[in-house]
Every structure is written in structure tokens, then in C-alpha cells.
Specification:
Blueprint lengths: L1 H22 L13 H22 L9 H29 L3 H6 L2 H12 L9 H19 L6 H29 L7 H25 L5 H4 L3 H30 L4 H7 L2 H14 L5 H23 L17 H6 L6
Length: 340
């Protein structure tokens, strides 16, 4: 019994580390200093690309398992699910405030499960009415509260809403496509697949650099590239890149091996909580009653929905012909949530 409790305790701690690492995506606009968000994103994803190249070199023996088309697809998924998603997160937080974007992204685990349920129905839709109502109420309150922030104009708020929901759409599309193709890959090729995604994100960032320079969106050329001037920018870029990719993925995988499915699925909601708390901390204030109520409603809705989805499905997955657990609800909720 003691060893079981210890395992669960360690699993919860690892889940907290993973979700905190993912939440660092949301603080990008607050740690740029005199530089721009474009500078931080460029440095961060060029670093991610370097990590990806190293991963490809280490996993080069796995190239025989992937066709050229699959390699390009993995790179494209990295550009959309890593680079474009990260840019939308940063823009959403910068334009919509510290609560709106985390609340929207908090829906992703439930939306992924709903997509899976629509493709292969395992839970009656009527059972999901209550959690979906909580999610809707929470998003409504979060949107209203962000609109009433004195520093935000209506145009800025609308742009924040646009980028927040764009981030949700990008991650949903990435997750569905990634899961579909992962189930057809040999398990030995997963490392190379992930490395190619990082290369795709870094390569796309490299290709966009001339465009950013043409429109004078980068401040590094004028403020300086030296560590004396840009050291903090480099440090935050490295921290966010490592925590949201390597550490986050490792900690979550380790946590899911130690926790029951229902608990690990619900702990995904901590990402939105950590992201909001970090954003409010950088703003130097606490949440308003409307922000707190909206975020609480989103978190309650996520926990309710995950519990219903995981407890209302078949206890065991039926493997496909390739050995993948396509019907496993935990697989739907977590396997593609933060593989980058």
C-alpha cells in the first residue's frame, strides 16, 4: 500500500512538472524585455530546430521505417503544431490578457475526446451536457472579463479571441492528424517522427527570418546579439523550449505510467491553471471574481468530462491490426496532447 501511495504521489508531482512546463508557452510575451515577441519566437524555435537535428542524427537508423512523404508530413506537423501554435498562444496572451487564452486552450483535452467520441461513439452525448455547459459558461465569463480589462481595446480583445481559438484549432488538427499517422508507424520510429517535427518547426522559423527582417519586426539586429544585451532572451528561449518539449513530454509519460487513467486525464487541466497563475503573476495582480469563476468553470467542466469519458468507456482497448489502442480513451486524451 505504501509503495502504491508513493507511486501515485510521484506521478502527481511529475504531472505537475509536465503541465507547468507546458504552461511556460503562455509567458512568452512577458519575458521578452526590450526585445519583441518575434525575437523570442525566432530564437526559441531555431533552438528547437537544433534539438530536432540532433534527434534526427541520433535516430538516423530509424529512417528506413519512414517514406519521404512521411518525413515531410512530420515536418509540416511540427511547423503547424509547434511553431504556428506557439505564435498563436503568444499573440493570444499578448492581445487578450492572461486568462482568455489559457481558458480556451483548457478545452483541448475535452475537444479531442469529443472528436474521438464522434468518430467512434463510446459515451452517450447526453452525459456530456453538464460538463459542456460548464465549459461554455467558463469561456463566456473569461471572454467577458478579458473584454473589461482597462488596458485592452475592443480590437485587441477580438484579435486575442481570434488567436486563442486559432491555437485551439491548430492543436486539434495537429492532434487528430498526428494520432492517425502515429498508429501506422512502428514504435521504433516514434523518436525520429518527433525529431522531424522539431526540424520542421525550426526550418520554418529559419525560412521566415528574411520576412521578419524585411518588415523590421526583429529588434535583435538593432539592440544587439551579445549575451550582455540578449542574455535574458536566450535564457528564456532555452528554458521554454526545453520545458515545453523535452521535460514536459518526459515528465508526462513518466506520470501516466504511475497514475490511474482517470486521475492522469484530469490532471491535464492543471496546464490552464498554471498558465493563468503565471500570467497574473507577471501582471502583478490577482484574478477578478469573473476571471476566477470562468477559469473554475472551465476546469470543473474538463474534470467532469474526462471523468465521464474515461469511466463510461470499455475497460480495455481493442487493438487494431497494427497493435495500436485506437479505442483507449486515455490514448485519445493524452497521447497527442503535448508530444512536442
Amino acid at each position: 500500500m505504501t509503495s502504491l501511495r508513493t507511486s501515485v504521489f510521484v506521478g502527481v508531482l511529475l504531472a505537475c512538472v509536465a503541465t507547468l512546463g507546458w504552461a511556460l508557452n503562455f509567458i512568452a510575451p512577458y519575458v521578452t524585455g526590450d526585445y519583441s515577441l518575434y525575437d523570442l519566437m525566432a530564437v526559441r524555435f531555431l533552438g528547437v530546430g537544433v534539438l530536432g537535428v540532433g534527434g534526427v542524427i541520433l535516430c538516423r537508423s530509424q529512417l528506413k521505417w519512414l517514406s519521404p512523404r512521411q518525413c515531410w508530413l512530420a515536418a509540416a506537423l511540427g511547423a503547424a503544431g509547434c511553431l504556428a501554435y506557439g505564435v498563436c498562444i503568444g499573440a493570444g496572451v499578448m492581445l487578450g490578457g492572461p486568462v482568455l487564452t489559457p481558458a480556451c486552450v483548457g478545452m483541448v483535452p475535452v475537444l479531442l475526446a469529443l472528436v474521438g467520441n464522434a468518430r467512434n461513439k463510446t459515451v452517450a452525448w447526453g452525459r456530456l451536457a453538464a460538463p459542456l455547459a460548464c465549459l461554455t459558461l467558463g469561456l463566456l465569463l473569461s471572454n467577458i472579463s478579458s473584454l473589461h480589462q482597462p488596458a485592452l481595446s475592443a480590437v485587441s480583445w477580438l484579435a486575442g479571441v481570434f488567436f486563442s481559438f486559432s491555437a485551439v484549432a491548430l492543436w486539434l488538427g495537429f492532434s487528430v492528424i498526428n494520432q492517425k499517422h502515429l498508429t501506422t508507424l512502428p514504435a521504433t520510429a516514434t523518436g525520429l517522427w518527433t525529431a522531424l517535427m522539431l526540424v520542421g518547426a525550426g526550418g520554418t522559423a529559419l525560412c521566415l527570418l528574411p520576412l521578419l527582417c524585411v518588415f523590421n519586426l526583429l529588434r535583435l539586429p538593432t539592440l544587439g546579439f551579445g549575451f550582455a544585451q540578449a542574455g535574458a532572451l536566450y535564457a528564456w528561449s532555452l528554458i521554454i523550449a526545453l520545458m515545453s518539449t523535452v521535460v514536459g513530454a518526459w515528465a508526462w509519460n513518466a506520470a501516466t505510467r504511475r497514475l490511474p487513467m482517470v486521475l492522469s486525464g484530469q490532471l491535464i487541466a492543471l496546464e490552464s491553471l498554471f498558465a493563468t497563475l503565471l500570467g497574473l503573476w507577471f501582471h502583478g495582480r490577482g484574478p477578478s471574481w469573473m476571471e476566477a469563476t470562468g477559469l473554475a468553470a472551465v476546469l470543473i467542466g474538463v474534470v467532469m468530462a474526462v471523468g465521464i469519458i474515461l469511466t463510461g468507456t470499455k475497460p480495455a482497448a481493442t487493438p487494431d491490426t497494427d497493435g495500436s489502442a485506437e479505442d483507449d480513451p486515455q490514448h485519445r486524451l493524452t497521447c497527442t496532447h503535448r508530444d512536442l
